[in-house]
Amino acid sequence: MEQIDIKSLTLEELRGQFLSQGEKAFRAEQVYQWMHEKLAEDFTVMSNLPKTFREWLETEYEYVTLEIVEVQRSKLDGTCKYLFRLPDGHVIESVLMRYHHGNSVCISSQAGCRMGCRFCASAIGGLVRNLRTSEMLEQVYRIQQDSKERVSNVVVMGTGEPLDNYDNLVRFIRMLTHEKGLHISQRNLTISTCGIVPEIRRLAEEELAVTLALSLHAVTQEKRRELMPIANRYELREVLDACGYYFRRTGRRVTLEYSLVAGVNDSDEDAAALAELAGPLHAHVNLIPVNPVTERNFVQPREKVVDKFKKNLEKNGINATLRREMGRDIDGACGQLRRKYVQQPAGKLMKS
Ligand code: SAH
Question: What is the CA radius of gyration of the chain?
């Protein structure tokens, strides 16, 4: 019989499971708190449960934990990059960033990615598989345990397209923000998408208060199509309309992410057009000088070009921030640490 992944079950589901097996309902709360608040590493540490009950849990359920393969610590800013092994042997990466306002964790939503954005290292090997809810939660849990510091913000901006793993993502959001779990505020959770229109609209209707970030990167349909294959499926106009809907439905301002690439999308005209798109949306613009990736030949604009681009936006009343580069000395850009491992001799770390 296949074991059920207990860490992906909501409290209500867990209660239902236990009741149908003749167990007491309050056991569900105890087990849920051990998993999601006390971040227990296995059933054996759940000391207020009878031994026979713990043994029963072990036979019925799979207890998903992630194994830390490697941690790279930046000497520049305290950023830590974690490489985790999933129960089936695949590896994923997550990042801990330390800001003045608290600790932020960037998690992966898939092993690999099938969106194929031209500048992104995660796209190179394609999609391996979706991550389960438990595997997304575990990235936050293991980092909080390892660093012994509270995680206050989570961004789903690591490897993978979160809206391509929709059901597991929404379950992750609800469980991460649940009062019997880590209880992270929904406002401190950001979901970054390349722009899957129907799922943006669906997310808008979930009655959640999470921030949506759209990876825009270009101001015309033509240019966007050159950088991001997803633009062949959805027109720029449709994507922006979906963001407008998200803003109206949730009251949450959308962030537009814009990776600056020298000679590609960094001109004065690009800045003016970006201001025109962002203004009506009341969107905040996040500028990210493109991170060079070994396999790609995109180059960052010079600092003065980046500053001018930002000033151009601000002149037009757009709220813009330049993403501080963190962990530059530790393979900071998306997918780079994992990529290095996947490139190792076959079979060493990855099963595939
Ligand atoms: N699939 C989601 C989330 C993962 S990528 C998305 O597309 O939004 C997180 C952000 O990093 C996206 O804005 C992505 O376009 C950007 N990104 C990827 N590779 C990059 C690179 N080499 N330099 C700068 N930004 C990059």
Answer: 21
